[in-house]
Amino acid sequence: MARYGATGLFLMMAMLVVRDYGLQLRSVLAALAALSGAGYGICTYLFLPQEAVPLQFLFLPFCIMGPVLVWLFSLSLFQDDFKLGPLHWAGTLLYFGLNQLFFSVLYDTSGMARDTVFVIYSILRFGLIVHMLFVAWQGRDDDLLCERRRFRSFYIVAVGVTISTIFVRETFLLQGSVPDIMSSFFHSVLFFLLAVFVFWHTTKANTDILLNTRAPGAMAKAVIPAAPEGNDPADQIDLDEIQRLMSAENYYLKPGLTVAGLAEAAKVPEHRLRRLINSHLGYRNFSAFLNDFRIEAAKQSLADTDKRHVPVLTIAMDLGYGSLGPFNRAFKERTGQTPTEYRRASLGG
Predict the structure, then answer these.
(1) Could you tell me the CATH number of the domain that includes residue 299?
(2) How many angstroms separate the CA atoms of 38 and 195, rounded?
(3) Could you give the C-alpha distances from 288 to 38, 180, 252, 281, 323, in angstroms and in order?
(4) What is the domain range of residue 291?
């Protein structure tokens, strides 16, 4: 019954996510990851009724690609600027190729080729787990969404324990053996608890986790907007102080500036600063907030005729970037041009 319940929750989650959030990349990946959860519940169930066997063929592709779909969804969930790139496609194709090579060609054979492919396949699966959990943990201090910050810790524990248990069970315990009833029962209960956890945190009750409230490429305002009427008047006082620090004192140039550092300078509790920047300015992470101020300053420097001979690298380093690559990416993401192209256009070249 636990496995049936988990499968039903994953199917419902897939439908609700698309209904509530549309076809933005994050919601599509969430739906595919949920379908992979449902597919895993169906395709690995030892006691599936005969009449339900056709469902295994229907959900088999989602079951096969489950680790990759969960990995991509996790990256999109915790990386606000996530886009599918060549490395993601390469990882997906490599995983699919190894999966098919092992299970369709080498599974019933023996020898070094089978063992080698299985080891590489297992390492890749384990690497996907480690990477997505690392990304979830890495951005915790930068996250401005209080709900998502809490979710990160629970996600690492709940998803990490469940997926790692499944990985260990399938990789080391089930090779060439038939699982016993107690093992299958424990596995089903764990799977159900994961389904409940993910369902609760990714449906309409917790919109901030999935919904991207800030359009990609939106730039910081020269003046932080006033708090809406009817809000706590203290919000405007705090927003004014943040504006003073960021614009008048160029606090965004401070090396290693963190949420805690800015909160201390503004004499605002850290959790309140996170809420102010997120709710009033629409930022989901602190790095994007800082980058927008830095790129705005870079635009002014690049358009300044007195600085026309200053190397782009020097401008980037002066703004706190450690190298030219991250600066170029951040600049083009927000302006649609490279720094050199922007300078040429601004100076009339």
Answers:
(1) 1.10.10.60
(2) 9
(3) 35, 50, 11, 11, 17
(4) 233-346
The b/e string for 135-162 (b: 16+ C-beta within 10 A; e otherwise) is bbeebeebbbbeebbebbeebbebbbeb
pLDDT digits (tens, 9 = 90+) for 134-170: 998 988 888 888 878 888 888 888 877 777 777 776 6
Boundary (domain end) residue, out of 210, 225, 249: 210
Q: What is the CATH number of the domain that holds 96?
A: 1.20.1070
Q: Which amino acid is at 233?
A: P
Per-residue CA distances from 161 to 157, 158, 168, 170, 192 (Å): 6, 5, 10, 14, 13
| Residue 50 structure tokens | 């005969």
Q: Quick check: helix, strand or coil at residue 14?
A: helix
Identify residue 7 by its one-letter amino acid code: T
Q: 239, 284 in Cβ contact below 8 A?
A: no
Residues 173 and 270 grouped into a single domain: no
Tell me the pLDDT of the chain averaged across its residues.
81
The first and second tokens of residue 214, run together, are 């800030």
Task: State whether 74 and 202 are in the same domain.
Answer: yes
